[in-house]
Amino acid sequence: MPAGLNGLLPALVLIVLFFVVPVLALLLRSVTEPEPGLQNYAALLGDGTYARVFFNTFLVASVVTIVTVLVAFPVAWMLAIMPSALASIVFGVIILSMWTNLLTRTYAWMVLLQRTGVINRTLMAAGIIDQPLPLINNLTGVTIGMVYIMLPFMILPLVGTLRAIDPMTLRAAALCGASPFQAFRRILLPLSLPGVAAGGLMVFVMSLGYFVTPALLGGTSNMMLAEMIAQMIQSLLNWGLGSAAAFILLVVTMALYALQLRLVGARRISGGA
Amino acid sequence: MKLITTGVLARLLATTLLATTLLATTAARAEDMVFTSWGGTTQEAQTKSWAEPFTAASGIKVMQDGPTDYGKLKAMVDAGSVNWDVVDVEMDFAIKAAKDGLLEPIDFAAVPKADLDPRFTTDHAVGSFYYSFVLAWNKGAVSGDPAGWADMFDTKKFPGKRTFYKWSAPGVIEIALLADGVPADKLYPLDLDRAFKKLDTIKSDIVWWGGGAESQQLIASGEATFGQLWNGRVFALEKDGADVGVSWNQNLTAADVLVVPKGAKNKDAAMKFLAAASSPAGQAKFAEASGYAPVNTKAKAEMPADAVKALPDAHVDGQINLDMNYWAEHRDEIATRWYAWQAK
What we know:
Radius of gyration of chain B: 21 Å
Largest interface: A-B, 32 and 31 residues
CATH class of the largest domain in chain B: Alpha Beta
CATH architecture of the domain at 66-170 and 184-269 in chain A: Orthogonal Bundle
Number of domains of chain B: 2
Family (chain A): Belongs to the binding-protein-dependent transport system permease family. CysTW subfamily.
Membrane topology (chain A): Multi-pass membrane protein
Number of helices of chain A: 13
Main location (chain A): membrane
Pfam families (chain A): BPD_transp_1
Shape of chain A: globular
Order of helices and strands of chain B: HEHEHEHEEHHEHEHEHHHEH
Helix content of chain B: 40-55%
Strand content of chain A: under 5%
Distance between the termini of chain A: 29 Å
Order of helices and strands of chain A: HHHHHHHHHHHHH
CATH superfamily of the largest domain in chain B: Periplasmic binding protein-like II
CATH class of the domain at 66-170 and 184-269 in chain A: Mainly Alpha
Shape of chain B: globular
Keywords (chain A): Cell membrane, Membrane, Transmembrane, Transmembrane helix, Transport
Largest sheet of chain A: none
CATH architecture of the largest domain in chain B: 3-Layer(aba) Sandwich
Largest sheet of chain B: 9 strands, mixed
Helix content of chain A: over 70%
Number of strands of chain B: 9
Oligomer: heterodimer
Number of strands of chain A: 0
């Protein structure tokens, strides 16, 4: 046994204890409750509701990931080229938002987004709209709330990647006659892809299992899987069904992760381009 | 890796679980107990009216936890590690949970039964309070006063969002049927197809509330112009000076009951607490603070006259009792359809 493995032992124990064992327990429950068999999986797969919620979950996670990338990229680029003293202040602001309680931040969005909220009142007072915009209890509300919460997870890995890019490559592109857009598309974007992939994957996977924000800012017609599982567990007390739903989500998420590893390569995702 | 046998693993796991549960309850002492309810203005009133006087009289400390979570309750009973001693639950759940073996029987030697309203007393539950679903609206946001449930389905006369209770529970299905013209005495058995068809007509105008505080926030802010609310929450809004209107027309009564989860650690203290909470004095104080009706028939005599007027039993004309036994029996079946319909 290589000496290094001894040092890994505590980490292994932790992973087995807090990840492998609970997942196995979950799997076991899904095929034993209320009676042994695969009936929970059959019920889920044969049910249109579940399929719709599953589709919604991936739709919301995809939209959130795309919008997060679009917002995070310019911020990360600004952070990468800023003087470091200023950048550390901006970093502080971003990190600080992560320390604030999730529920508080989500409620803050409710106050801002509701029909009688700050945004709608301002727009109506300015005469830009006559009717309040439907910003909450729908996909818009969920997207805004979740993008806000996910931004740091996208910005941080992206800044690392962008900082590693030699600014001279952009200058060289300009000298060779590339327009700013061409320089972005052909130099900056390809070089930053590992960061985008790493952050994007993290945001996507976290979004798949998100509960609080969709529950508060979304409507029931774009319900996500986590909320449906909560109903199965809390209201229906049908733990077998809830476990099966959770297990399917886990398997699909892992499959996506594996696919991305294939496409992008593990080293690039972990940031070691 | 050989060192870590499954036995060690199991023990490690057990210790971790134990440590987590201990941390979660801040380790109740021998005679202390934990009371769990729904939070907000209701639990505040329960703390003031029941827990504080009870602690002063008995020396038993009552720790507050919440909100009530049926999944957690079942998890605790299944795992044999029950941290809650008395839990405020909806009555239809209590009937079902008793059938599923999740509850301790009530020790009526310790809890005097004679004056308790028999409608809300079972072998495994003592009434907590009973309430009405009423139609409440934000006066600033609605022009004209809605007169009854049918108006909630009339988007021409009353545009704007309307809010209903999100979870599958007695109430919304009945409201839809009443609005569709089903006579009150023909509600049960519930015609689910008809109810969902009626609800479909306003589905895009519904904002759901998941808890009492949320319902208050929605109406007070005008985010929803009107909705189906617990009468106590409307009462609290009025007390705070919010500009709300309320219609008691066809108000729908349901009850919360107090239960003791199977295997509760402080059963004796729990029974003593139940006796205090359901006593005339405890019920009178809570009813006065919350606007919910007492389950002890002697309580009203101890209340000021104007507080009695705020209670659901001042509005028995046209009042409809939601059928808890019907719901207990069909809980799962209705819930499955309810959530499937919501997600559509």
